[in-house]
Amino acid sequence: MRRIAAAVTVVILGAMLNPGTARASTGLGDGDVQIARTAQDFSYRTYNRHWSVVAVQPAATADWDLALRDSSGTTVASSLYGAGQTDFVAVDSNVGRRPFGSYTATVTQYTPGVYWVQQHTGADTITIPAVTHHGVTGPSDPDLAFVSLADTDVVSIADIHLSAGEQFWANTTTAGSTLFLIESDLAVPTTFAQGRATATVRQHTQVLDGCTLYTAQRTGWHALVMIGDRAPTTHTPPQGTAYALHRVDPSTPTNCPHRNFPDPTP
User: How do residues 60-102 score in pLDDT, each as one tens digit?
Assistant: First the structure.
């Protein structure tokens, strides 16, 4: 992974994206996955009071970077991860955050090769049920919710409403590297659009009792963004990956209730 300070990133990308060097953009529909191997601009619009996301997945040996510009040409966020890793930018269009509008996702080459790009304008909501009993009985337990990524997708996104201090578990110790709880701060407009590195630094996770514990820092509509760091593929029947989510049981706050998932946890 190539980490670059945010201030430096803006300067470098500003030079790369000189408004005087305009190029045609390719329309990117909601949920569409497009494949390319040259630097391109991809355009789309936001129109839902949700978080949205655009993501680029390079092939294993390729490295393509992502910058997102608004209709004024201003870069609102960028993502500069390494070869074979997913770059994404999530945008908060909930009330009081970024207005609806046009965006241009600019994909630039660091190492050549094929890449896939996808965007979701955001329409899904996840609600984690209240705790009704200790442990879980398995995948059909009513206390569980699920967030998933189809093998044909690069990225998935859903809104989730949490209160400050509210916590939930994801059922693996590695969830924090591919499942991101992204929060914006009404007092800090720069948080209304976040790339992968910013989302990683800002989220609050803890590996505990065989699971990953997520803690919301403020009250509001947040995003759950899931990636796979792998090229999209097609299977028959369709396949994918998922995390099981469970609210923290206040009577056992340090015990993951589904650490044995998909097997029951007493």
Answer: 999 999 999 999 999 999 999 999 999 999 999 999 999 999 9
- Distance from the first to the final alpha carbon of the chain: 39
Query: What sign has the CA pseudo-torsion 22, 82, 91, 153?
Result: positive
Gyration radius from the chain CA atoms: 19
* CA-to-CA separations, 173 to 87, 127, 154, 170, 226, in angstroms, rounded: 22, 22, 22, 8, 15
- Distances from the Cα of 138 to the Cα of 131, 143, 187, 257, 261, angstroms: 15, 10, 41, 11, 6
Question: How far apart, in Å, are the Cα atoms of 53 and each of 10, 76, 165?
Answer: 19, 13, 25
Element (H, E) at 173: none
The mean pLDDT of 51-62, rounded to a whole number, is: 98
Quote the mean pLDDT of the chain: 92
196: left (phi over 0), alpha (psi -120 to 50) or beta: alpha
Q: Which residues pair with 193 in a beta bridge?
A: 91
Please state, in angstroms and rounded to a whole number, the distance separating the CA atoms of residues 115 and 33.
10
- Tokens 């690069």 correspond to 154
pLDDT higher than threshold 70 for residue 21? no
Quick check: helix, strand or coil at residue 159?
Answer: strand
Q: Where are the beta strands (DSSP E) in 22-74?
A: 25-27, 33-36, 40-46, 51-58, 63-70
Q: How far apart are CA 48 and CA 81, in angstroms?
A: 28
Question: Look-up: residue for tokens 């209304």?
Answer: 192
Structure tokens at 140: 């059909």
